[in-house]
Structures are given as structure tokens and as C-alpha cells.
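User: Structure with zinc ion, C-alpha cells only please.
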Amino acid sequence: MPVINSIAAQSAELAHWRRDMHRWPEIGHECHQTARFVAARLREFGVDEIREGIAGTGIVALIHGHDAGPAIGLRADMDALPMDEETGLEHASQVPGAMHGCGHDGHSVMLLGAARYLAQTRNFAGTAVLIFQPAEEEGTGAAAMLASGVFDDIDLREIYALHNFPGMPAGHFSTTKGPIMAAVDTFEIHVDGQGGHGAKPHETTDPVIAACAIVQALQTIVSRNIHALEKVVLSVTQIHSGSADNVIPSHAWINGTVRSFDRGVQETVRRRMAEVVAGQAASFGVTARLDYVPGEPAAINDPDCATFAAHVAAQVGQAEIREAPEMWGEDFSHFLDRIPGAFVFVGNGDSAALHHPSYDFNDETAPFGASFFARMIEETLPLRG
Ligand SMILES: [Zn+2]
Ligand SMILES: [Zn+2]
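Assistant:
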């Protein structure tokens, strides 16, 4: 059974909505216009209930099936990235410094496509709970919606989400039976020494040398302190210090990210970072402070939900269970922390990479994703008899 016919017939309209959304990207929690657009479509479809303004601009909509039964959640993100678009496309961003560079415009439209089908057909026993979330890129939208209490009277049995995947053909799906997206922590290291003349280093305690040594020593944590089969990344991505060729500065600043899946590994990295920073600083006579900020947790699929999602995806297109997760972060992990479910990739074809200025969501993907969402409701909540 391929893409649902009535959804395929609306492909042009889905693409039209998606391009509209793409022209007017909104960042973080400020998805006001996007949320109004989504809510207007949901009202047209005749969903049973819409809850708006959740944690700012989030939306939760309920569609009841022909019979009563449990509630299943489907989630899409709506937010864009703070970057300039360089696609040159007719529907390119009209907002300087904002771009749908991760395809969340496509995710929202796929869920809208499913919403219209489900509101028209209602061939299920239970409630479809459609979740439109802001601020995924900041990693704060999911947690804010959960904390808002909007789900307090909804007993979500399972929850599912899609993310487009450049390089995988449109119509292909993949997921994992466990970890799928990494925990994303960030860190800053402030190194303070004693500056002075570049010609008289012996009269200074040089934070540049200390910062370089700290960055080198940090590379030993993954290679020497963590089991070789664990998946973890420690990347230093910024060092800033100094202002002139003849001035030894008194301050250096280091910034980076840690990606992991296992909480024990995450804790070991954090502890070793503190020890390495303190030890290196002492050896150079400078002081250094590590600010380690845990971000969203790892996204861990429920094995049964993932297996079922792959089974349903195989009805719509091609599906595979893959072994390896991705080292990106995804704040859907906050939902998966509380509710069994699965995060599923859907192919975006031969597009530029996510977060690249040339990226664009592939409109051929939308009917596949919308059909997957719709079938997930019909298959997890089958009508009796
Ligand atoms: Zn992204
Ligand atoms: Zn994304």
C-alpha cells in the first residue's frame, strides 16, 4: 500500500502551503504567523479541539476517531534557523537572517496533510493528538510545551515524529530500535592569566598557551577515558583571545559541544573535563573556570514503537531499521523521555545538507510523510470489527 490516494491528490496544495511557510520563517518561540497559519488550516479541516498559545506559540489539536480509545501523539516542529538563505529559489526566505534550513516547514505541512485526512476519514478508535512545536532548534520548545500542562488531561500512549533526511531518497524511511539522536551539551572555559608585552612573556602568565594546552588535553578524554565502543564527541569549536601582535592578553575563551548517548559516559566526560581544565590551568599558573551546560537529553526510541513505525512506513514507502544513530541533537527527546515512541527519518532526496544555506525541503517528500503519520494513527488505533 503506497502513499494514501487522497493525500497524493493534494500534493500540489501541500507544496503550496510549504512554500508559503518557507517564505516567512520564524525563529525560536516566536512562531506567531506560522502558528496562525497552522491553526487556520486545522480549523478548516474541522478538528475537534485546538489548543493555541501553548508555551507561547505551540499548538495541540485533537481529532477523535469513530470509536473511543487511547491517544497517540504526532509531533512536528515549526521553527526556522537564524541564518541567511542562498538558494535563489522563487520561494526563498523573505526575512533577512531567518531561513527554514532544517525543513521544519515540511514537517509542519506533512502533519497538516495527515490532519486533514484524519479529520475527513476518522477510521480509528481513539484520539489523534497533533503537536506543532516552536523552538526545536534552541532545544527549549518541547520541554516548554510539556511543562505548560497542556498534556495533563491527555494520556498519550505513544508519540511519533518525522525528520527529513538529505541524501536518502524521497519515500524512504529509517529509524533505530534505541538511541537515534545524541544528548547535546555545551561548554565554555574562561582562562585568566596575567597579560603583558609580547616581548616579555616571562613577566606574564600567558592564557593563550594555557588555552592551547587545555584544548589538546581535552582530546584525550574520548580517546583515553571512554570505552572504545561508546559513541561520544567532544568538539572545541571556538577559541578567542588577544587583540594585537605585541600584546599577551590576560583572558582566553574556549567554547564547544559534547554529544553522547549514555548518561554514565556523559558524566565521565564532564568530570574529566573539570579535572583536565583545573590541572592544565595549575600547570601554567593561570586560573580557568569550566561552565558545562547540559542540553537536551539523547533521543531514545522505544524498540517496539520503532519496529512498529518501520512496519507502517514500509506500507507507505521503503523502510529500514538502522544500527547507528546520528550525533545531532533533537529536542523530541523530551517527549521520548516520558512517552514511549519513535523518531523516524524520511528521505529528502538529493538535497543540500540540513542547516546549509542552499538547503530546501523536498516537496516530493510531503505526501510520504503525511501518509505515514495518517497510517500510524489508523494502525496504532484500529477500529474493532
Ligand atoms: Zn536543525
Ligand atoms: Zn530539524
